[in-house]
Amino acid sequence: MNKRIAVVSGGIGGLGTEICLSLARAGRRVVALDLGSREERIAEFAGLTREFDIRFEAANVADYDDCGAAIERIVGDDGGIDILVNAAGITRDGSLRKMDKRAWDDVLGVNLDGVFNLCRHAVDGMTERGFGRIVNISSVNGQTGQFGQTNYSAAKAGMHGFTMALAREVARKGVTVNSVSPGYCETAMVMAVPEDIRSRIVDSVPVGRLGKPSEIARTVEFLTADDAGFITGANIPVNGGLFMSF
Ligand code: CAA
Ligand code: NAP
């Protein structure tokens, strides 16, 4: 059988890089989709992933047409997309009383519109071929809300609604759609939180530490496996116990 083709948005980011490596180790051909403007980071990513079947493709997930063009290029090169992981995300934290419209639009545009933009272009190929795995990287803060994150929490909660609705639409076509809700992990996004606030957050995590990107990647690898076809419309929390629910 040909290798499954996996596309990971935010693919050169902290979680994205580990997700790419983990899927490649599991025998997938991986395309890391990310902004094309960060030459140094792209070069660093290329060095890290040199030994694996991983390549970089530039796209702005907030731009519908850009996503369409990127998906078209990948399908042209590789014949189709089997796995889509939506991991591109940004924060623009600030309490609502200080939040300008730009901070709202930017976060919704990348974190939520980005999921629509990529899924809209990728899903038909999956249903036509009768196989697909979509994983949306949400957040514990989409489940609980977080001070200073009305924009981010709204986008991440919106991803769950999107996930469940699309899961129903494509369930009979061999395509699963799930979300993963990480807690606070060791990446640039979390390191940008002021140190005193971050250490208070870590103190409140039952496991007592930040998550490792590889711990999120492990969950994504599990959900995208060929034999994970009965898990759909689900949300898997990976948060060190920060938010427990059933
Ligand atoms: N709970 C209650 N009160 C809080 C608070 C909190 N968590 N944080 C701040 N406050 C209080 C302050 O003490 C201050 O009180 P006073 O006015 O009485 O002095 C007031 O709220 C400050 O309010 P502001 O409107 O001035 O707040 P701000 O606009 O400056 O925003 C903040 C502060 C930038 C949001 C800061 O609190 C912060 O960085 N918080 C962390 C947010 C966070 O967790 N972001 C996660 C980023 S990583 C990520 O998102 C990944 C993931 O999915 C897990
Ligand atoms: P990260 O290191 O900042 O990676 C995110 C990647 O997405 C970056 O490479 C970023 O590029 C890219 N990106 C931003 N805007 C984009 C756009 N418009 N188009 C394409 N790519 C874009 O963050 P991370 O910690 O790995 O987070 C990955 C995902 O997990 C995000 O969706 C985040 O919300 C979610 N998450 C993270 C945590 C955590 O603790 N780290 C917890 C819960 C959920 P730039 O760096 O150039 O902006």
UniProtKB/TrEMBL annotation:
Enzyme class: oxidoreductase
Ketoreductase domain mapped to chain residues: 4-183
Assigned keywords, A-Z: Oxidoreductase
GO biological process, one term: poly-hydroxybutyrate biosynthetic process
InterPro entries reported in the protein's UniProt record: Acetoacetyl-CoA_reductase (IPR011283), KR_dom (IPR057326), NAD(P)-bd_dom_sf (IPR036291), Sc_DH/Rdtase_CS (IPR020904), SDR (IPR050259), SDR_fam (IPR002347)
Family indicated by similarity: Belongs to the short-chain dehydrogenases/reductases (SDR) family.
Protein name (Swiss-Prot/TrEMBL): Acetoacetyl-CoA reductase family protein
Protein source organism: Lysobacter antibioticus
